[in-house]
Amino acid sequence: MIRLEKITKVFKIGTLETPVLHGIDLHIEKGEFTTIMAPSGAGKSTLMYIIGCLDRPTSGRYFFDGKEVETLSDWELSKIRNKKIGFVFQSYNLLPRTSAVDNVLLPLIYSDNYPGNPEEKAKELLISLGLGERLEHKPNELSGGQQQKIAIARALINEPRIILADEPTGNLDTRSGLEILSIFQKLHKEGKTIICITHDREVASHARKIIHMKDGRIESVEEVEKPKDAFSALYELKAK
Amino acid sequence: MKIFRLFRESLKGLLQSKLNTSLMMLGIIIGISSLTVIVSIGEGGKAKVIERMNSFGFGSDVFLVAAGGGKFFSHRRTKATTLSFKDVEDIRQLPNAKVVATYQRQRSVRVAYKNKNKMTRLAGSTPLWQVVRKWDIVRGRFLVDEDVVGVKKVVVIGDTVVRELFGQEDPIGKHIRIKNVIFEVVGVLKKRGVTGGGHDADDRMVVPITTSAQRIFNRNYLNSIRVLVYDPSKIDITAEMARAALRKNHNLPPSVEDDFRIITAEGLLVWITRSSRTLTLMLAWISAISLLVSGIVIMNIMLVSVNERTREIGIRRSLGATKRAILLQFLMEAVLVSVIGGIIGTLLGLGIGELLPLITPVNTAVSFKPFLLAFLFSLLVGIIFGIQPARKATLLNPVEAFK
Question: Which residues of chain A does B312 touch, with a Cβ-Cβ cutoff of 8 Å?
Fold first, then answer.
């Protein structure tokens, strides 16, 4: 469902050109849990923004669901971001001074009519992520792990097919990180396509496929025979 | 509706930065409230003139010849003594003239009954006064020709005079003193009440003109002549003919201006609209400048706000906001601020308009005009000065927003 062909990205600052991606070829199938692993500065965030239809490549072709993204209008791209992709960022990117429920409801402002009661759905999502007691809390009243769960609920409200996560555990302690990863693994089991970007080998090994990137190129694709199970790791951590 | 959801986001955005919002509103409030005050003053002035016209008993079939040259209501320092009974006779001869009433008058004359006394308006006139003024009598009678010919010391008084001098007593047949001359009260005018501008139509007395000329004022010249015509469509011609006759009577060479004024209802209206046009122009400039300034304030604060909210814009874009949605959200914020400011400004202006007549001699009137103007102007200011910051918000690269 995601296919990149010879994608390049060059940033121009004045006359200075900084190439970030050098011809990325990538293919991600529906229902895969893929991590893109790279040290910082390798262009992995740039790649994620291109996959997430937030940025356009300098050259190369990108097919999303069979459609060539280059040809789509702002309106069509916005619709893809709204309906088909759920973003999870390292720094959560919640709106401050806005309650958990209202943050989760944000994408619906930009959607067409929503089937059912959106507020019930938002609360349901938050409750299922263990935030039932925190529905009306504002982000600054919550821990990093709780904020990231709100962000995941927000990513899920429109029932997208793809979850696109950029260092989702980067700001979290081990336990909260494992919680987030176990949520991803659960979502994966439910059939969602998950693309997770990280620099952390530990995080990456929770996926079935690891794409190693370096200096704007894909170095290798690693199939993980037995991905780590975040849920049991969490269980063990609790037992200690 | 998507637009309604965006509207709610705009409202939330404004409520979340109350300081910015109130700063932006302040300029609009000042601009629109001053606009409202000026409109109220303009309307008030107009209302006062129209009211004065009505209190003169002015209609399209009446014109007035007033002593002294110049503009309609301008105050004259020198006393014009040229309007005479001969002028009245000549006007009466004009074909279109139906009724010609003659006036001597004084604004403030002392009148006393027993131990009570008051100041009131006094007119010396003829039985025709009642005809041109279309004013009924409730008790007794009006003046008759006999009173005028016989220089009778009789007086017809208004309701206010009755109330203040006689109380519950029946004034008919009683004697009152006007400037040390004893008059018999023969009639009471029907009550017309106080007009909006505080002009009490019932605070007046009418005596025969011969009596006023010989016993009270000791002068033979008139203050005004009021002419009722048969055919209102020919009133201008009749007025012109009267003018020619009076100029001849007063021996005015062509180079000299009239020493009297001829006032028609239409002439008055033209004059009123002309004077209010200047005022309108002036207030247009004042409000334009204040609204321009407040528009610039809104634009500046919005531009800063867009910069501060780069991250928010990026988040919204990543969640599926189109450029159009971002544009609308920020544009509606600017428009909301200015329209709410406009409403507050109008209410404030109307409040000031209510207070002004209490502390200054200025007259004001409430009308729907300020509301309409305020809404239109504040809407325009919001759109014109909000579009640039809103466009800037849409041009932000969402990726940049996350760095």
Answer: 95
Tell how strand B175-178 and strand B62-67 pair up.
unpaired
Residues of A in contact with B5 (CB under 8 A): 108-109
Q: Which one of A58, A78, A94 makes the best mutation probe of the B interface by having the most chain B beta carbons within 10 Å?
A: A78
- Give the closest residue to B259 by CA, choosing from B76, B72, B82, B89: B82
Note whether B179 and B163 are within 8 A (CB).
no
Asked if this assembly's ipTM is beyond 0.85, the reply is yes
- Closest CA relative to residue A151, chosen from A174, A173, A180, A177: A180
The shortest C-alpha distance from B333 to chain A (Å) reads 16
Percentage of chain B exceeding pLDDT 90: 35
Inter-axis angle of helices B85-92 and B235-249, to 10 degrees? 140
Q: How far is A94 from chain B (nearest CA, A)?
A: 8
Q: Where are the domains of chain B?
A: 2-52+276-401, 81-258
Give the H or E element holding residue A201. Answer: helix A201-204
**CA–CA separation, B159 vs B154, rounded Å?**
16
Out of A54, A95, A107, the one facing B312 most closely (by C-beta) is A95
Query: Contact B320/A82, CB-based, under 8 Å?
Result: yes
For chain B, 403 residues long, give each residue's pLDDT as a single digit of tens: 578 889 999 999 899 889 999 989 988 888 888 888 888 877 777 777 766 666 666 777 888 888 887 665 555 545 677 888 888 888 888 888 888 888 888 888 899 998 888 999 999 999 988 888 888 899 999 999 999 999 999 999 999 999 999 988 899 999 999 988 999 999 999 988 776 556 788 899 999 999 998 888 888 888 888 888 888 888 888 988 998 998 988 888 888 888 888 888 777 767 766 666 676 677 668 777 888 888 999 999 999 999 999 999 999 999 999 999 999 999 999 999 999 999 999 999 889 888 888 887 777 788 787 788 888 989 999 999 999 999 999 998 888 877 7
On whether any CB of chain A is under 8 Å from the CB of B399, the answer is yes
B2 at interface of A, judged by CB pairs closer than 8 A = yes
B243-277 pLDDT per residue, tens: 899 898 888 888 888 888 888 877 776 776 666 66
Contact A52 B311 (CB under 8 A): no
Tokens of B336: 């909301």
Across A149-168, average pLDDT: 95
* CB contact B6 to A (< 8 Å): yes
- Nearest CB among A79, A87, A98 relative to B318 is that of A87
Positive or negative, the CA dihedral A178, A184, A188, A191 is positive
What residue ranges define each of the domains in chain A, with the CATH number in brackets?
Answer: 28-54+72-239 (3.40.50.300)
Chain B residues whose beta carbon lies within 8 Å of the beta carbon of residue A112: 2
B105 touches chain A (CB under 8 A): no
* Gap between the Cα atoms of B73 and B355, Å rounded: 26
Cβ-Cβ contacts under 8 Å for B122 (sequence gap 6 or more)? B105, B106, B109, B111, B178, B204, B205, B206, B207, B212, B216
Q: Report helix, strand or coil for B101.
A: strand
Q: Does B397 touch chain A (CB under 8 A)?
A: yes
Residues 107-146, chain B: which have Cβ within 8 Å of A?
A: none
Q: Kindly give the interhelix angle for B2-16 and A100-109, rounded to the nearest 10 degrees.
A: 140
| Each residue's pLDDT tens digit, B325-381 | 999 999 999 999 999 999 999 999 889 888 888 887 777 788 787 788 888 989 999
